[in-house]
Design brief:
Number of strands: 8
Number of helices: 6
CATH architecture of the largest domain: 3-Layer(aba) Sandwich
Strand content: 15-25%
CATH superfamily of the largest domain: GIY-YIG endonuclease
Largest sheet: 4 strands, antiparallel
Structural class: alpha+beta
CATH topology of the largest domain: GIY-YIG endonuclease
Number of domains: 2
Shape: elongated
Length: about 200
């Protein structure tokens, strides 16, 4: 039995997860019954509050959102698994050396380009200063159908150019707006480096 003193609110759990997921998103997952939680009811006001036990939440994320895959010998990635659907790295992304699959705790604050994929096929390319938060937004919005997320780090001042170059080269079906290059020279150099 869990001691009530060990239960934490969503804000505390979010901080323990290095803000990989927001407190509001944790509560939404609890409300949908997807994540382990405890409901504490105030006997006077009948107000319900969600409470969490960190080891259970952490284990849930490890078991439901993370899986290790090996793409090349001696190279292991972590992959986000939505609804426990396992997929493979899309062929278009196999040659990107810096590719990391989300969530990878500790990298969430690094800006980068992310790739939403469905059943091994690239669907969408986006950019964010906080990639894991943006991917969580996509999950909550439910407008893009994906079951795997990949990511490459990128300096904030180069996000637009790299995203545009990758969309232009890979042409994912859910990217409809193509931006113009701020620095076409950089885009050509970086694409040659990424797809060497």
């Amino acid at each position: 039995m869990i001691d009530i003193k060990n239960l934490k609110n969503a804000i505390q759990i979010s901080k323990q997860l290095n803000e990989f997921i927001s407190a509001d998103d944790l509560e939404l997952l609890a409300k949908d019954g997807k994540i382990p939680y405890y409901l504490i009811t105030n006997p006077v006001t009948s107000e319900n509050k969600y409470a969490f036990y960190f080891p259970e939440v952490d284990a849930w994320f490890q078991g439901n959102w993370l899986k290790k895959i090996e793409v090349y010998p001696n190279m292991t990635f972590l992959q986000v698994c939505v609804n426990n659907i396992k997929s493979q790295v899309p062929m278009e992304l196999n040659c990107i050396e810096q590719l990391i699959e989300l969530p990878y705790f500790g990298l969430h604050i690094i800006p980068g380009i992310y790739f939403l994929c469905k059943d091994g096929k690239l669907q969408y390319i986006g950019q964010a200063r906080h990639v894991a938060r943006r991917v969580t937004d996509h999950l909550i919005e439910g407008e893009k159908d994906f079951n795997a997320v990949f990511y490459i780090p990128c300096a904030p001042n180069r996000l637009d150019d790299l995203e545009t170059a990758l969309i232009d080269r890979l042409k994912p079906p859910l990217n409809k707006i193509y931006k113009s290059f701020k620095d076409p020279g950089y885009s050509k150099i970086i694409l040659n480096k990424i797809f060497a």
